## 1
Amino acid sequence: MVGSPHPRRRSIGPFVRFAFGVAFSLVGSPHVRGADLGEAEKLFRTGKYAECQKLAAGEIAKGADAASWWVLKVRAETARGEYTAAGKTIEDARTRFPDDLVLHLLAHEVYRTSGREKEAAATLAAVQRQIDNRAASTPAERVALGRYLLSTGADAKEVLDRYFNPVVKNTPAYLDAHLAVAELALTKHDRALAAETLQKAPKEAAGQDPRYHHLLARAFAEDDRARATKAIAEALAINPHHADSLLFRADHLIDAEDFAGAEDVLKAVLATDPGEPRAWAYRAAVAHLREDAAGEKAAREKALARWPGNPHVEHLIGRKLSQDYRFKEGAAYQRKALEKDKQYLPAKAQLCLDLLRLGDETEGWKLAAEVFAADGYNVVAHNLVALRDQLSKFRTITADGFVLRMEEKEADLYGRQALAVLQRAKKVLCEKYGVRLDKTITVEIFPRGQDFAVRTFGMPGSEGVLGVCFGPVITVNGPAAQGQSPSSWEAIVWHEFCHTVTLHKTRNKMPRWLSEGISVYEESLENPGWGRWMTPRYREMTLGDDLIPLSRLSSAFLSPKSALHVQFAYFESALAVEFLVSRYGFDALKTALDDLGAGLSVNEALERRTGRPLAKLDSEFTDFARARAKSVAPDATWEEPDLKDEADSAAVRVWLQKHPQSFWGRQRLCRGLVREQKWAEAEKELNALRTLYPEYAGPNNAYELLAVLYRQTARPKEEGAALEEWAKRDGDATAAHQRLTELGAAGGDWTAAARNARRWLAVNPLTPTPHRALAQAAEHLNERNEATTAYRAVLRFGVPDAASVRYRLAVLLEQSGERDAARREVLKALEEAPRFREAHELLLKLVAAAEKSPAPPRPEKNP
């Protein structure tokens, strides 16, 4: 679905008012040389702005004949927030160099960002005259003009082809051209292109420029947080005062809920430029998240003091609020930004995403189309517009306050069951948490991972994410999108709807760890096989340094060390919720959620509702978690056999003499004995392995291997018991569900067969076998509605015995009194198998019944 967007081309022509934040880098024209200028540029690049400003002023006073000195002085002055001085410098420079295009473009930027909008507008005339009279000739002019034209809404490809790419090709050592291309790619959300472009930049110049490292960090921010962090550290090592890099760091600290750390970074930015609008915007966002309305208002006013018409301020505040799931407040800020500039596309695009996440689809999709029409190279807008076409083909099921959207075939296969899970979750969880939902809840289940990612994040690339809840909107990666080993879609739906309940209760004011912890905890209560069990690795992490104190659990999600640590964060968060409920009661947790909704921080709420200081809670939770870990396989040791893959059971027994309680060694012994079909020895060792670590449900667990043994030795009762123990611990164990279904049918236990077919379908409803098994079991149990639904699902797979399936379906419909529907199905069966004797008999029966009970006459129409 995702591809190269079709551009809505806007030719380079008349200039219009452009948006905040265009980065001019105008120093370093190849024709300007001199040791003093190089020294000044280095001072600027390394953040010694005052020294740079002083040196440039001295050279200007001596009568310097290069405009680059004035440009450098203006840049040093604006970096320090001295816009009055910068305005005076630029006016002097334009008088001295009336034909310098770079100076005119810089003047426009200085005037506009300091709120001198009349002077900014007047400057455009001078820019236009320069362009009319001559082409941009130097690399600096071409790059500066290209950046400017992009800000006016000019066609991105045309700017690339006419301005940036020729400089990259003809003057490959000119770093700024490479940076301009990377900036453009990032504004279009093409991080891969940005990274590729930066890799081709001139190495020596790039390595010494903080802008290069900052852009590299932005390129890797979503996919490689460690590399992005390293790049920002390198930028700040070059220039400790580099505002863009410091603000990048502050942004991530806010995401990690480290508001104190973010404040320290913002202070560093404001120490250089006390009026930096982005720093004040971040402060406003933090104040909002801290429920500090007065601080938010004051910070926002500071952010707008220099340029009251700056739309980027409200856009930035709103974007940070939306990243904290405050979509309603975030959307309100985007509307304020658009009041200042109704064509400001970043705000319009963010408002689009906010509204779609709030379930306001009419305006949200309209905005997506508007952004795409204005900027055909905006990848997010392109993806959303294409996704809307895909969603229009989905089936919509509405009931009980839900709007469920699914691909047509999948809706036939498990749409009814999905709605039933949602309805059950609503009844159980809303009642338990005292929540009454006041909005329709939209749930969309996607068969393609890219579509899920675009609906959820605006961009493809969501590997490992199974579902996301925004409150009134839930998106789910369906079984088809998960590959060969899908997770239970029922568990995902239950988990995400639990988020809807807790987000509603707290008005979206809850840390991620608590939200995820409650959802995983409630999964486990509904079905123990859905939860997360104490794996050997989790046990090790819980007993080691990876266990995070309760008061700092947010960092587990927001700054994890690895993908494993993210998974452990879910486990630990659920353990924390279990600790709170078991130690202080469910009401303490429930009322703490009310406190969050009222504006308290999570730590304040927990202290209030448990009556314990935070340090005590941290200590108690640590003791609880480690006691739980020690209770798992307490007699086991964890050495791993250093044996060759082909080693037999005898070799493993020799190794075990030195490590008799090694879980991994005993597991390997059991695997070897089963492979060698030494059933008596294997049974003894497997029972010992199960006793050693009964919770283990991972690969080659004792229950799985015992089931193999019992099947091979024709002991179906024991096999079923072993499989049931496995299935109870792992809701995704389709091999267990399948075999239990077969055993139930073979033994005539249709209740067990139906139960396990449903378990199977809860993981993978995309094959006909579990539907057929459920249909047969339900038919034996006289559950005609369920059997009918299951047989219809079987037919969606185009099975070779469709005639037989239609016949069974017709029988069920006839038994339910649906004779017309039964007649249609039996006729279809006879179309596929004209000599189907039982079908002929059923058709004759239906015809005879129709003749005995003719349809009532239709009422006459009024004359």
## 2
Amino acid sequence: MLKKEKKWEWIILIGAIFLVFALAASIYYFFFYRQAVAPVSQDYLAAKQVLFISSYSESFETLALQKEGIQQAFKGSDIRLDIEYMDMKNYDQAANLQLFYEMLRYKLENGPKYDAILLGDDAALEFAEAHQQELFPQIPMVFFCINDKEHAVKAGENPYITGAVEAMYLKETIDIALTFQPKAKKIIALYDDTLTGEGDRKLFYSLKGRYPGYHFGGLNASSYTLDEIQQRLEALSEDSILIYMSFFEDADKNQYAIKQSVEQLVSYTHIPVYRVSIGGVGEGLIGGKMTSYKNSGYLAASMVMDILKGADVADIPVSTEGEGQYYFDYEVLKKYDIKLSLVPKDAVVINKKITFLQEYREVLIPLLLFVLACLLVLLVVVADNLKHRRLTREAQASHDKLQETCNKLIGAEEKLKQQYDAIKAYNEYLESQKEYIRYQAEHDFLTQLPNRRAAMEKLDQLIKAGEQFAVIVMDIDDFKEINDSYGHACGDEVLKETSRRLLELMSDKLFYASRLGGDEFLLIIKKAKLESDSKILTQIKQIFTKPVVFEEKERYIQSSMGIAYFDEHVADGGEILSNADFAMYAAKNLGKNECVYYNAHMKDEALKRKDIKIIIDEACNQDGFYCVYQPQVNALTGLTEGYEALVRLKDYDIPPNQFISVAEETKAILTIGRLVTKQVVEQMAMWRQHGLELRPVAINFSSKQIKDKTYVQYLKELLEEHQISPELIEIEITESIFMNNNEKAMKLFKDFLSIGVRLALDDFGTGYSSINYLTYIPVSKIKLDKSLVDIYLTPGKDTFIKNIIRLVHCLGLKITVEGVEKKSQYHRLRKFGCDYIQGYYFSQPITGKEVEDLKNPLK
């Protein structure tokens, strides 16, 4: 009987311990955990869709913190968050923007409808503003981490847009650095010539006036090689404060990630290095005050929450203060003997060692209380058990209850087993889907060709294996015009049909095809030297000999191809792809539908065009253009009857045919067109003021300027402002303006005529010249190109020129012949009845002042 009673004592004791544990867990759940995570009713947010457009890639340093802040703000709601990445840090190119636009437009047309848009960083805001009416009509948009404060405030004037800027806490960081280094005499900033670096440089020197008595100096990484940068870092004196703002490139155009830049700074400096942006703190930099990307994401997402609850976007002001936080590395503070008492109280200090008790204080105190509670309950249970040890009947009842509990546990175990079997079956299903998921990740959804990611992995494999291969970058010519003229459905069919034909060639194991994006394809041919008549190259060209059929209509397409070979000079897949890309653009410049092999000059030419683009942008913003005027002489009288205005760069000896072609690749040509027009009209007003009799002036109008929809109105207002007769303005156009824009071109011509200006057809005899155009283009003059003069205005061939002059006169038009440089040419053209002569025989282009002093040549 005694043994049985002891057995029950142990059973009751064990049960009591379990009860104490359950009681403590319940207390913790209800009083601590439940309060922390209890969900708030969010019925008004049910089934809401929010799209987050990030300017960068998923691996960019700030993105994880931004996402953490957004998710914290959305916690407890049913909001579904989708994310799209523009990747503008790696691909700041128009082609990438176009590809992202087409991808997003497709998803918006075929995917969920969004209730709000989050815009991370400047590129996302600019993209959303540019495509608001098309992609996001009447959808609330909240931006954050915007560097350009003025742009942010301007964007906030839109009734559907609000958000917050990303403040740069440079002054606060300099102030704390002066606190840490009171003996400092120099304040040095490290920056470069990138777009970010240019902004950093301006911000740094804007603070110079606030620190009188200190030497402000900059170290421009883009101006030095890596060795020179290292030498200058080592030479910094002890009385210097060094602030790392941007270091993404050096003079050799080597590119550096933040981690690589930090490694250089830590290795070659013997003074603290301060930071005003993310990256480097914890890796050797002392720190500073910088934007809290987590708080920025939280603030923007909170604005979205308010909007989804019913707040009006227009009532939420743009936040211009930013979300900042001091961050410092304890080990670096200790290294330079900087006392913690100097650190701001609200600063985050990392790498600070803490005691075992400090580290586990939050765990040890509840654990100690739990143990004391267990001991207390144990004493009570033992006392109660001793008091009632002889009550065997009650013990038996307790035994029965425990048996019942065990039976329930057995039932629960059976349910757990069933759940385990279900999870196992689900895992088996997931395993069966792996191959499908991998296929989707490595292939383009539209064409089913391998995608860019798979192609780059293929290139890296071939390079690692040392195999010989050639790369072709193929681009469909005038693809944008296909989309604009026949619709995106037709464009998609062109891409799919091209891909189907490439897939047929992939039966050859030496041939590999992929879609890079947009209308670009990457082809890899292993173990082959591609001569112009090689079999595989011929097969590739033949896929464009058959038309693409869409809606029962045949459409022929063409492509431009660039070819590059792998050799020991190629570092990686990205470089050989870039080489082939250079060659492809060279093929485009040759007139399209060409195949060009890469050479080193193409890269030089591309870099030269890049430099010219920078010069053009600078000239557009700093009054960097001026006009000269070449006389147009009456062939019969020899008197000057008009001028052609020609644009020149002020501070650079770059021929117009070079910088104009670069400007036509961007919107700069629109700016240049208006600058030239303004200068011409103002010059004519000045001539009149100086007593000069005004003669007509011809202004060149680029085919790309057809995108300037208000140019005619702009010209009209200029003429009215300066009281210049429209009849004194002649607009020179070329046939290319209506090759792909016939309806728009004809409307433009009509608008020009409606305000009273005349039209002339320039460069006749080159390019696409057709007599048919002269029957319906409302021009009053034809200008014969210099190339025809050089070829045909010679004995035995000049009948050709004579017949052209006769033909133009039969159409009731006047003709000007350009490029006349010899007396004999002038006399023959005069004999043929030519109306006007223009060329160096009479005068080279001259300034407006020289026009006033010009003497008419004798007959």
## 3
Amino acid sequence: MSLSRRGFLVLGATGAVVAGAPPLGVAQAAAESAAASRTQRMYLTGPDADHQVDWDFMCTSGRRRGVWGTIPTPSNWEFHGYGTYNYGWNLVPEEKGHYRHTFTPPGDWRGRRVFLVFEGAMTDTEARINGELAGPVHRGGFYRFRYEVTGKLAPGEANVLEVTVSKESADTSVNNAERLGDYWNFGGIYRPVYLESAPAQHIERIAVDARADGTLRIDAYLSGAGPADRLVAQVTDRSGRPVGMPFTVPVPTGATSVTLSTAIDAPRQWTAETPHLYRVEVALNSGGHTDHRVSEMFGFRTIEVRPHDGVYVNGVKVLLKGANRHTIWPTSGRATSARISREDILLMKEMNMNAVRMSHYPPDTHFLDLADELGLYVLDELAGWQKSYSEEAGAPLVASMVNRDVNHPSILFWCNANEGGWNTALDDDYGLYDPQQRTVLHPWANFGGINTDHYESYESTRRILQEGSDIFMPTEFLHGLYDGGHGAGLEDYWTLMGHERLSAGGFLWALLDEGVVRDDQDGSVDVAGNAAPDGILGPFREKEASFYTVKDIWSPVQLTEPERFASGLPSDFDGRIGLANHYAFTNTRRCRFAWRLLDFPTPSQGRDGHAVRDRGTASAPDIEPGQDGVLRLRLPSGWRRADALALSVTDSDDREIQNWTWIIPSATEQARRLVSTGRDRAVQGAVEGGRIVLTSGHTTVSLDAATGMLAGVRHRGTPFSFTNGPLPTTGTAELVHLTHGLDADGYAVEAEYSGVLRHVRWCLTPSGWLRLDYRYHLTGEHDFFGVGFDHPESEVSGVTWLGRGPYRVWKNRLRGVTPDVWTKTYNDTATGADGWEYPEFKGYHADVRWASLHTAAGRITMVSENENLFLRLFTPRFGPDPRYTAPPFPTGDLSFLDAIPAIGTKFDPPAALGPSGGPNTAAGDYSRTLFFAFTRTV
């Protein structure tokens, strides 16, 4: 027996209250009296998808049709070998599930009223108790509904519950709103089913309006006739200590609703940054005796939409930084658990999100409970994906949603469906059940004082914010697909949305790839082509690159001069770092700042990661929300001998919200440490069959005398398949003149070219390092530019490199990667389409100082003498119909680049997403120096 968060007495599936109880005594009698005054709940299914109970089951069509078996509940039947998987739009009206379950409710429920409650079943549900209809068929798959079954139930005896669930509805408008949507459709009892028992006269529900100033109003709704004459309420904190005095109100005879009110002095206010919760218990008394009591968690907070200004919480303007979340798990569909809800919320908070939109239906109650507890602003949404419920079908569903969810402080807005799926006749219904009178939104429209339009371009976003007059809060923007969207373009958008007066923030589409494990397709994960892989996270919550980009851009602590640290630690760094506080309620004094001095391994050491030379903390600066300030680091003497300085910021919950790593030496200085040219070994050069062959010790390099390009490399007799470069990735290279011979550095080959490539100098040094100096000339707009080489992809097994990683980058998604020594094994992941093996191996990598390619022949190590080098590793695969999320790649296999392309979204090309999505403008001469070393695999 336990008391739930919402004040129910929870019983086991058998209905037993206490097993092995001692003889009845005074204390036990008092405890049982208190228990009798509460609503008691007996689960017939398990409480969630992690705790299930088997029921008898038969499906009428699809797999295993017509065969009775058992199925765990709650669940969606498709995941247990029954019925048909279908994604949106494809209705299967003949598919029904028949359930049967035998249960025994407690004998002491005689004389009490009993209700059969379904938290959610898809989509039309008919229930019978002992062969008798519990009530009318319920239509609507995402809502709580209940039947009074007092007269149909036999307490203390075996009872039979029979349920028929039709996957599609007999009401066309319900199918239009719920089933003809851009998401997976499932069938079955996927949320818990339970019995509730209460006294004949009881409190059916309460609706709380708790304001930031401590004003508290409670609407209590009563059911049943009886002698009750008074309601008494008491507020307590999370530990159960009373807050304020009890407050009371008389109950007039025959009253069905009564309002209580009080005021609490200086309550701790609820926000997403400070999720302080209280509990209120409301007791229904008669003659001084408590007949029934309920309790609810709530928070003191006030929401305001100030026209032509913004959204305010507790008098402070807030920017919502959120994502759209579907309720789904790959092996259980819409049947989830508190564990999954917690994981998703913590992942969102790890990305520094403070908000979530429930797309496109109300979520499980455990998700909202955890949003209250952990701190997350919520947009709670009625179903309706571009088509609406009729007023007759929708009105009871609005009532169900609001009555269930009204007391959650996390909910800021109600959403009346999505993208034209609203029925405007329902707009006024929300306020009938919500004493807080939250604003109702029409996602995709300008309604309720807020423009929520979807997928505006960067330029139209600028116009709306700078030239419009309404609050702008897109409930969907940057529609992800595969590796596009989300982080790509977000910095440009947030430069506008994070600073313009009319902005209230926005919601990325979407949090998750909606993938399901298909037991009818050998266990493969199905994302319905390009319809459902829209997430920042994979189906099993795999973190894609954009996860870290979003975390970086939405961190509440930012650098005031990011450009000063763009290429590493400034040479004049004196320990001072300018910071901006983007919190709404939190002073940076509540954060913890810690620094580390790092040493990186060299390529020859063959490992990744770093060693910590020294570490310490810094006093948190006193920066109020919305203000700038300075963090002062007191570093030890000799700190510049380290390879990098790392700084992390954690919040009051010890969650990392931001981290930076800055390399200390310049690329030139670092190259000098790593590359030994040697002096004690002879270097030779000769022309052999149209090639210039250079030899130093165990290394032999061949250059094509007709082109000046690399023709082959051998080390200790083993050939390396690294050839045909440095060819310009844009334009031509026609050899004009070539010379070769010994010089002060070794044996050099110099080539002059016409076309884009102008000059190349190869030099094999006595140490065996091969130096390459090249210069090219390019102007105009281009997707990418640099030089490239060939190397068979099939001969590569991995790479170790010092640079920003471990994820690949695009021109408009450079943030979120960290300088370190990283290792990746080869994979051929098509992001969001198959495998979900992250980080992806192939693609563009930023700020590479050195890299060792693991090949079948051995390791090819490259060292750059210049900053800001992009290393391109092969050409990745993309999923089917990638729209604007398959950027161009150069010919060849490996490239050393000065510029790379941007990536788009499902709906927009990169150039529409902001300045960083446009083409690169080449500005004349580009010169670089690279060093190569070849090591045979032992």
